[in-house]
Each structure stands twice: as C-alpha cells, then as structure tokens.
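To illustrate the input format used throughout this study, we show a single complete record. The first block contains the structure-token representation of the backbone; no residue identities are included at this stage. The design step must infer an amino acid for every position from geometry alone.
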C-alpha cells in the first residue's frame, strides 16, 4: 500500500453513541491518498465494536486500541505517531465532515502549506439546526507567511481551542516539543505556537466541519481548563507579544468577577471550586465575599439571565460564552 498523503487521526474515548456518525461522514470521502485512523484510549463502552464494524468493510480505516487512557493530548500525539500520511488531520470523535472537505484539504496541501486550519459551522447537539455558519467569520481563504504568526494567533487562536480544525504536516508535529504539553488539553496549540513555523499557514474560509454544540466530555473540568489551563498556555508563548495575548484572554481571568459569573451560569463554577482555588488567596475581602456568593447563586437563574442578555444585547457572544469547544 502506498504512503497516503493525508491521515485523518481521531483520538477517542467512550464515544460509542457518536463516533459511528462521525466515521460515516468521513468514509465516503476517502480515496487512495487518504487513510482514517482511530486511536482508542481504552474505552470502557462499546466504542471498539462500533469502529470495528467500519474496519471490516473499509481497508483504509485503521483502529488502534491503547492499553490505558493517556488523556487527550497523549492520545492525539500517539495518533500522529501511528499515522502513515504526510499530513495529519486531527479530527474529533463526535463532529462531522461536510461533503467536499477532504478534496478541499488535499488541494490546500498541494499548494505547499505546512498547516491548514479548516473552518467550521456550529450545530445543535442533534446536528439538526445551524447555530453559527462560520466559527471564523471570513469571505475568502487567507494565507499567513512565517513572519505573520502573531496575526494568525490573533485571528484564529480562540477557534483553535477546537483541535478538529487542524491539518498539519506530520514532520512538523514530530519535530516539535510535545510532552511538556501533555495535560494542557490543547497539545496542538502548543505544537503550533511554541515557536514560529517555517511554512505558510492557510485558513480555509468554507465551513467543512459541523461541530456538535454542547457535547464536551470535559464539562466537569471546564472551570479548571477555561480559567486556568487555557490562559496559562496562551501566555506561555514567549515570541508572541503581550498585546496579542491580551486579544485572546487575560493572563488571570479569574480576577474578573464577570468571568466567575459566566462560569457559574455555565454550571462550571461551584462552592467546591471556590474552596479549592480562592478561599486561601491573598486578595481583598470584598472580592472573596463576591466570589463566594457567585459560587452559591442559583445556576438556572443566572443561565437564563445570561442567555437573555446575549440574545437581546450581544447575540454574537451566545456561543462564545456557553461553549468553549474541547477536544475530548
């Protein structure tokens, strides 16, 4: 079998209910230049049974089951190691590829880009209704030269919290530091932005991915990830300016009570989080009392208020506030 141009790499864990639909959206687009690789982090449901139904019918689909769950960063890294393609599309296990996606990516690869970012639409959990037509609002494809990494950072980083957008040259991935990003939940962001890339980057304007809204597996860890891990990662890139980082997120967003209000409305900030993160902090007494009261505020009331606020005053913020798209 010849070496494929593209490996679609899916790291999965306990996604038996959705991964079949994901694979079903990809397989009709496969050709001899493309393989589909599923790396299973030791699922305890019947994910393996679902995937093997596809491997039995399609030789271009491979399944690798790990002996233990390594976490999203470790398992995606393993998927790139196991891949055979020149490029790897780090796709998610519950979203869908829209028709024409692989053809568009292959064209972009042949144009010589080292990294391709594929735009997405957002649909409801049942994928029946479009909630947002484009995650990155743009009319045409955009190319970034190696000296325009900061522009890419500002334009695309928030969207790149979603790993399914990333198509990267396999040699770039393997030649960069990865282990230090295990546990961040966003290894791909670390690989991309740890130092300037030497090749051009393309953002594909067309939405070739359908994201399943509100289906994150790490909701119980959302507060730690979105308020601590994500900002820490964003602010770790020394070659990116402070001004650019501020365009993405504050260095310590938890200091703003507005952040805690939003997280409470999401249901991700609780009294337990207050006790763990803030009860022993050396901050003003007023701030601590406010943070404690927010942690006790009825979630349904606050969620309803935030939803009304977004719908009536800032409708474009609704998805941004309520869905920090994860990779697990």
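Output of the design step:
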């Amino acid at each position: 079998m010849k070496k494929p141009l593209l490996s679609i790499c899916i790291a999965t864990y306990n996604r038996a209910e959705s991964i079949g639909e994901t694979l079903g959206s990809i397989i009709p687009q496969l050709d001899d230049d493309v393989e589909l690789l599923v790396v299973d982090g030791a699922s305890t449901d019947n994910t393996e049974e679902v995937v093997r139904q596809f491997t039995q019918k399609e030789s271009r689909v491979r399944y690798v089951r790990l002996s233990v769950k390594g976490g999203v960063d470790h398992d995606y890294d393993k998927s790139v190691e196991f891949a055979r393609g020149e490029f790897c599309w780090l796709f998610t296990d519950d979203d869908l590829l829209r028709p024409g996606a692989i053809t568009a990516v292959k064209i972009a690869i042949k144009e010589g880009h080292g990294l391709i970012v594929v735009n997405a639409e957002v649909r409801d959990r049942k994928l029946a209704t479009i909630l947002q037509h484009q995650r990155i609002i743009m009319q045409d494809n955009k190319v970034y030269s190696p000296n325009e990494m900061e522009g890419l950072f500002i334009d695309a980083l928030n969207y790149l919290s979603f790993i399914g957008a990333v198509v990267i040259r396999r040699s770039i991935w393997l030649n960069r530091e990865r282990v230090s990003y295990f546990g961040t939940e966003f290894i791909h962001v670390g690989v991309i932005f740890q130092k300037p890339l030497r090749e051009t980057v393309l953002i594909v304007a067309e939405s070739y991915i359908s994201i399943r809204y509100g289906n994150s597996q790490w909701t119980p860890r959302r507060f730690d990830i979105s308020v601590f891990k994500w900002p820490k990662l964003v602010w770790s890139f020394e070659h990116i300016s402070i001004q650019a980082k501020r365009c993405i997120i504050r260095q310590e967003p938890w200091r703003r009570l507005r952040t805690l209000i939003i997280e409470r409305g999401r249901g991700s900030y609780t009294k337990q989080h207050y006790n763990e993160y803030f009860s022993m902090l050396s901050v003003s007494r007023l701030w601590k009392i406010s943070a404690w009261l927010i942690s006790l505020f009825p979630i349904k009331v606050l969620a309803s208020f935030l939803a009304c606020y977004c719908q009536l005053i800032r409708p474009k913020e609704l998805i941004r506030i309520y869905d920090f798209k994860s990779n697990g």
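Structural context for interpreting the output: The chain has two domains: 6-212, 219-322. The CA atoms of residues 252 and 284 lie 16 Å apart.
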